[in-house]
Amino acid sequence: MDVLDVARWQFGITTVYHFLMVPLTIGLGILVAVMHTMWVRTDKPEWLRMTRFWGRIYLINFVLGVATGLVQEFQFGLAWSEYSRFVGDVFGSLLALEALLAFFLESTFLGLWIFGWGRIPKKVHLAALWAAVIGSIVSAYFIIAANSWMQHPVGVAVAEDGRPEQVDFFAVLTNNTALAAFSHAIVAALMVAGALLVGVGLWQLRRRKLAGQPTADADHQVWRRSVRLGGWVSLAAFVLVALTGDWQGKLMYQQQPLKMSSAEALCQTEAPASFSILAWNKLGSNECDDVHSITVPGLLSFLAHSDFSSAVPGVNDLQERYAAVYGATYPDDPSFGAKAGEPIDYTPVLAVTYWSFRLMIGTGAVSAAVAAYALWATRRGRVPTSRIGVHGALLAVAAPFVANATGWIFTEMGRQPFVVVPNPDVPVDEQVWFFTAQAVSPGVSAAEVWTSLIALTAVYGALAVVELWLITRFVRRGVTTGDDHPTPGFTPQPPDEVDDGGDAPRRDRDDDVLSFAY
Ligand code: HDD
Ligand code: HEB
Ligand code: HEB
After folding, report:
1. Which residue windows does the record flag with biased composition (Basic and acidic residues) (predicted)?
2. Is there an atom of ligand 1 within 6 Å of 69 CB?
3. Which range of residues forms the domain containing residue 295?
4. The 3-state secondary structure of 447-468, one letter per residue
5. 202-232: pLDDT as tens digits
């Protein structure tokens, strides 16, 4: 593998890692803030316990999200310095805003929330959490706006040296690609949090029932409400994910037609175009001919244009069109590295785009189905004891994580061979574009990037183990009784006696964990 390949693997691996934490931070943050709000409004102990239990998991994940995010930032300078120079004029302001918001809003207010229990007025304390959560969401907007600019560059003019010069920051901020991707990503994050509440809640309910524990106390309510809240949030979020995804799909047909046609394995232009449900044969070779698939007639035309007859351009025609405008071969210039003089393949890896798109939708649907099952199984106070159902729901916590990862893999691998995709809405001589092959740092060697790739993957692997271990520990322990911080208006109750396989007395374990998490 040359530098380019290794650098791409490195970016892909580390970023997908970062995005395991991100949707949980965003989604769980919103839900914990809702739980806290419910406690302030109703004063019911179960809402307090839920806030504290899920709040702790939120915080552990947040710390790991920040750690993995910091590493992300280094990569731009290390492996992708040409890219950083190219996008500098546009990204400077976006990323500065992101950092400002992230560090000031998120960290300050989260600190206030963590240390504020029982020390500041209840409502101020609640407002601090909301401020932190909103801070994360706003910072997500800026980073997505940066990514969307790569998918669909707006608000720029071509400068003397061929680089984009920002002329309209407002246009960058209101890029339709960004609005669609942001709404899709936020609701996708809610699916992640919803699935976690459902999986863990069902598992705890079943465990308590099998252990003969009461179903009338606040601890039971903690898990029951977690399942109900998580289930409804998942279902509602799935509907919104589908609506926003459809919006994105329509934009993509205008903005990145090759990405979408590759995702559908549509080799020849068709009118009406049919939608492929399952394709096989030759996808792996990246040569789009003779792909066999099971199709629904007209559906692709509908998804692209809202009618059942319009033409949708196929991969092969688009490949030719792009080659005519942007060149059939890479310029024979050292800045293109090993690719200099090579033919340009404008078709992204077909098998990846095709399957990542389907995996995203499929795992999302699995998650929605599990949520529906959980709501049905817990209707009117019921507690499911089905081993398959409950353990299946616990396993399905992974599904929306997979959907998020594959969604990004589709978005990012589907824009290849460009790192900044030309915007077809403007005349060709006003377009800016940049090939991934030009984007790597000129000075680095494959060996250097290999070293950092191995080091980063090892560190991230270790972090993931820590995160999983900590979260599993908390999940197995269940709710703490709230006496760890004196909270006005809350009466501590004796710890429950669930045998979770732990060896130390419950009270001690609360303390030692608190010293870590807080
Ligand atoms: Fe992120 C943390 C940098 C993608 C959402 N990220 C975080 C931090 C840095 C970055 C330096 C730690 C400091 C802070 O709290 O802000 N993030 C990046 C880079 C990315 C990236 C360079 C591009 C590849 N991040 C990214 C996306 C989103 C987020 C696409 C949202 C959709 N990032 C967040 C967050 C985090 C965060 C929710 C995640 C977990 C956390 O804060 O604790 O704000
Ligand atoms: Fe990205 C790349 C994922 C975000 C920028 N990414 C990449 C890859 C992947 C990813 C997988 C690889 C691809 C290829 O190569 O083919 N991302 C991702 C995820 C996320 C992201 C998961 C979420 C977190 N990005 C992002 C953002 C940005 C970016 C936000 C900006 C700001 N990417 C990027 C770059 C790169 C990438 C620059 C390199 C180049 C290429 O294309 O590769
Ligand atoms: Fe998704 C992406 C659609 C589901 C997550 N998505 C994406 C895209 C599209 C879509 C079109 C691309 C964009 C671009 O590239 O620009 N989806 C869709 C649909 C559906 C879905 C239609 C069905 C319903 N998703 C889903 C789910 C999830 C997701 C379920 C999770 C949970 N996605 C996602 C992500 C991404 C995507 C994360 C990346 C980012 C953006 O937004 O872009």
Report:
1. 503-512
2. yes
3. 191-402
4. HHHHHHHHHHHHHHHHHHHHHH
5. 999 999 988 888 888 888 999 999 999 999 9
Q: Which two tokens stand for residue 393?
A: 């729901």
CB atoms within 10 A of CB 133: 26
Query: Which pair of structure tokens corresponds to residue 309?
Result: 């007859």
Give the 3-state secondary structure of 380-442.
HHCCCCCHHHHHHHHHCCHHHHHHHHHHHHHHHHCCCCEEECCCCCCCHHHCCCEEHHHHCCC
Q: In angstroms, what is the span from residue 312 Cα to ligand 1's centroid? A: 36
For residue range 498-509, what is the model confidence (pLDDT) as tens digits? 444 444 334 333
Give the dihedral of Cα atoms 191, 197, 199, 203; nearest 10 deg.
Answer: -170
CA angle, 98 then 194 then 233, to 5°? 95
**Residue 55, token pair as written in the block:** 């709040």
Please state the atom number of ligand 3 nearest to the C-alpha of residue 414. 15
Q: Is the CB of 361 under 6 A from ligand 3?
A: yes
| Cα-to-centroid distance, 175 and ligand 3 (Å) | 17
* 349 falls within a domain: yes
Residue 413 inside a domain? The answer is: no
Asked if 187 contacts 206 with a C-beta cutoff of 8 angstroms, the reply is no
Answer whether residue 49 is part of any domain.
no
Domain count, the chain: 1
Enter the ipTM.
0.95
Which atom belonging to ligand 2 lies closest to the Cα atom of 94? 32
Specify the pLDDT at position 290.
62
Amino acid identity for residue 488 in this structure: P
- Comparing CA positions, the residue from 108, 173, 166 lying closest to residue 144 is 173
Tell me, in angstroms, the distance from the centre of ligand 1 to residue 22's CA.
7
Residue range 243-268: average pLDDT?
A: 89
Which of 2, 13, 15, 94 is the pocket-test mutation for ligand 2 (most atoms within 8 Å of CB)? 15
